[in-house]
Amino acid sequence: MPAVFANSYASRSQHISSQKIAQLRFKVCFNLLAKQNYIYKVLNRAVGKAMHRYEMISDKDRIAVGLSGGKDSLSLMWILKERQSRIPINYDLFVIYIDLGFEGGFTEQLKTYCAQNGFKLIVEHTDYGIIAHSAENRENPCFLCSRLRRKRLFEIADELGCNKLALGHNKDDIIETLFLNMCYAGEISTMVPSQSFFHGKLTVIRPLAFTDENIISRFASSKGFPSFVNPCPSAKISKRQEMKSLLSQLYSSNKKIKGNIFRAMSNVKTDYLLK
Description:
alpha/beta; Rossmann fold; 6-stranded mixed beta sheet; 9 helices; 6 strands; 54% helix; 12% strand; globular
């Protein structure tokens, strides 16, 4: 092949190759954006449904947001801020983090992340985690720690003049709590999406109550939320984690089970329960 034709062929091949690479990059970016948009829509729809059904937010609400640093509370903080800019309801957000006192915590990193994203994080330093894991309370550290943390959140919300406290519990958490209460407390009860305390002075809301945990995980990943390591020694060996594993096995046998359990909690036939 003459050199002039060879050079022309090589140039053309290189041009086609560049075109294919550009098309491939465009396709990858388009698919990624479409996937992110889909996950956002699923999350936003579930949050909107929960908020509407339980009338969670009203005009001029002052909402304290309990931040733990996990994917659920970070997603909650993001969606409440995002909705604040586009729905015809005015409300204020106050983000609170309870430092439990464990070594190797991530308070400063969380504070920096919040500041970079337009949030002023209110940090409360405590020794609740240490107390809950003391020798006098080895049997159920999670229960005591949760109770102390929630009590302090209530107090700070009151100090800030907040009438709502938003927590990041999701659909999976609500189902797990149902089974934990049945197995370890001998009662049929769970967390509810909206619950008033102190004669209506403060209402706890859970906007993620209708959202599946896997959707939140995918959303957090698509947004590049930071992943903080929980320093709690019981983080991976709690009763809740055991229940999560058991339910995961149950769900894997039939994809309808999870939805049926969740719907059953609002379809209780008391005539067919023991008196």
